[in-house]
């Protein structure tokens, strides 16, 4: 039944958007439409290059140290200038997506968290760097929003934002949690650290409360699978803090949901919660399985080193059980490993197409997830991915230093923050691999 439903979903997607999905190892088209690509020259597009519509080979030349540094510097300056007087940043409302003035929109937690994480990844913090005050103001904005909405359903009363509409109603808590997780280890013991940990716990509680029985975050938007992926990543990181209470069953359910969105054997994605877009589902599956796949690999390699199993043994359920992993956990590890490896290939495969042919904030978020997943898994392919995607991102930067989406999440603030996070991803290698 699941297979039949998946075929219906993907078939509908193909008819509506003109997507052609090809198996990596065969030339047979799974879905064929009469849609023809325009003859006119297409603009460079990160989404189309990663998903196969455009080649990334020629764009490697756009990624070198000097060009990357220049792009980051311009984006950084634009982002700082875009901060609102209340310390936050805003994406704007879904009903007014054409607004490109960052000061004409209200600040919201999701966008503020993304901008703050970008600045942190670039080496700034509330303790050091020339943007200390800006980041202190941003942290104060986020803590205030979380604290005053402790007893409400959401951490902010600002509703109808582009981010909420496209990713989900709980995306503010998910992204704020990620930023606070990043801040708290850098703080000395004291009032501020306690305040940040209290805010982390509030976000964790709200996210856990929002999970449905399937492990999906409720209140999903157009591409809600991304919201669920970011929420789970936030919970996993929070669970490493001994002062934060996290329900491990929620994490397991969320991991299973993300793994369930991708069939490693047939190389098909369940795109129901991803707006019918392969990229959203695949990148979320990669991100959702990365941490567990790394756990599995670590355990298995340690068993090889200690002589528990032959050094040439492959990671699978039977061999995991042979080294003492409980049957249920061994099965989970095997699925995570298979999903990660297969979905990773799809996320960078040139035979998977999209139907938009241009960039929205969701695409940038998906690329960020793919890159961070490669880091989490300590995957050697990350450099190849980074050079390809970074080259294309540099090519499509606006003259004023910003980036903006062409559909759905158009916000220049949100897209600029996300692109900066991608371009500087190697700065967080140690953090992502902890």
TrEMBL record:
The lineage of its organism: Bacteria, Pseudomonadati, Bacteroidota, Flavobacteriia, Flavobacteriales. This is Squalene cyclase C-terminal domain-containing protein. Residues 65-126 form the Squalene cyclase C-terminal domain. It comes from Flavobacterium enshiense DK69. Pfam families: SQHop_cyclase_C (PF13243).
């Amino acid at each position: 039944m699941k297979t039949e439903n998946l075929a219906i979903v993907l078939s509908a997607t193909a008819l509506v958007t003109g997507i052609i999905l090809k198996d990596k190892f065969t030339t047979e088209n799974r879905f064929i439409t009469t849609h023809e690509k325009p003859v006119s020259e297409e603009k460079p597009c990160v989404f189309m290059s990663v998903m196969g519509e455009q080649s990334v080979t020629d764009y490697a030349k756009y990624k070198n140290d000097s060009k990357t540094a220049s792009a980051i510097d311009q984006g950084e300056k634009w982002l700082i200038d875009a901060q609102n007087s209340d310390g936050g940043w805003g994406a704007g409302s879904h009903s007014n997506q054409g607004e490109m003035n960052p000061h004409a929109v209200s600040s919201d937690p999701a966008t503020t968290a993304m901008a703050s994480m970008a600045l942190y990844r670039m080496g700034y913090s509330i303790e050091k760097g020339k943007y200390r005050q800006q980041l202190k103001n941003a942290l104060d904005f986020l803590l205030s929003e979380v604290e005053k909405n402790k007893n409400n359903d959401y951490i902010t009363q600002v509703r109808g934002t582009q981010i909420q509409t496209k990713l989900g109603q709980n995306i503010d808590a998910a992204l704020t949690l990620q930023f606070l997780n990043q801040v708290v280890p850098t703080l000395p013991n004291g009032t501020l650290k306690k305040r940040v940990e209290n805010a982390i716990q509030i976000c964790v509680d709200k996210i856990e409360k929002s999970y449905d029985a399937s492990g999906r975050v409720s209140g999903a938007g157009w591409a809600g699978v991304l919201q669920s992926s970011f929420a789970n990543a936030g919970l996993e990181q929070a669970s490493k803090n001994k002062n934060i209470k996290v329900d491990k069953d929620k994490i397991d359910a969320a991991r299973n949901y993300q793994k369930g969105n991708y069939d490693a054997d047939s190389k098909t994605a369940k795109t129901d919660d991803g707006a019918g877009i392969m990229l959203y589902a695949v990148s979320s599956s990669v991100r959702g399985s990365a941490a567990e796949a790394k756990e599995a690999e670590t355990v298995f390699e340690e068993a090889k080193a200690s002589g528990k199993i032959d050094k040439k043994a492959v990671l699978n359920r039977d061999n995991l059980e042979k080294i003492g992993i409980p049957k249920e956990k061994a099965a989970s590890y095997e699925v995570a490993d298979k999903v990660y490896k297969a979905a990773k290939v799809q996320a960078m495969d040139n035979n998977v197409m999209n139907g938009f042919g241009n960039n929205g904030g969701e695409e940038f978020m998906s690329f960020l997830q793919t890159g961070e997943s490669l880091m989490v898994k300590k995957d050697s392919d990350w450099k190849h991915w980074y050079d390809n995607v970074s080259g294309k991102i540099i090519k499509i930067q606006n003259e004023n230093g910003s980036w903006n989406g062409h559909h759905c999440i158009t916000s220049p603030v949100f897209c600029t923050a996300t692109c900066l996070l991608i371009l500087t991803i190697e700065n967080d290698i140690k953090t992502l691999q902890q």
